[in-house]
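Chapter summary example.
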Amino acid sequence: MLFSELSASSCKGSTPATQDSVTTPNDSNVTVVRNSRSYLALGDSYTIGESIAQAGRYPTQAAQLVSAMGVVSIPAVHYIAVTGWTTADLQNAIARQHLADTFDIVTLLIGVNDQYQGVDTGTYAIRFKELLQTSIVLARNNKAHVIVLSIPDYGVTPFGGGNANISTQIDIFNSINKRITTSFGVAYLNVTTMSRAAASDNTLLAPDGLHYSAKEYGMWADTLSKMIQVALK
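The structure predicted for these 233 residues follows.
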């Protein structure tokens, strides 16, 4: 996530603005097994795990949990996610990738930078719908293999300062993405409620006081992994 207006030290971290995708650690050493499945994670800094190690990202943790269940294996996660991206940025990045492959699972979490940068809700709705349609195409036109995650509430973080107005705006954006997701019959995971636990638990925050820790992402991954397992049965 966040935010293109912030300083490089507080926001961009080690993720360069020109980077469109990152693979999970040790992907070059992965042994692909017969029941392996592919996973594409689309998003912004929440997806890429700004300010934490790669292993702590929620898609990486979810993939490991799914693999540990023994039904299928997700040996790697392909990421199209960069800190500061809006829906428009993500759309442009996907177009630049010219993806030749489709994926068994696609997750989508996007919108916090639209809210932060003052993108109007009507424009967000249009772009989110287009991204969801693209996600379904990338999931081999199988909507059952797409999962949308809600936007976390950075208003509860030290950066957000407990600003109730931020939380209200996040709820509005989430009402939009949930309505659209539901209309397409796609699974929706509410991580916003879980993210608000950081208001009283600093261990759920990344060192930058804005993003989330591997512990917080682990909570998301626990539920997400179960949803992925159901989708891949």
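To summarize the output: The CA atoms of residues 115 and 169 lie 7 Å apart.
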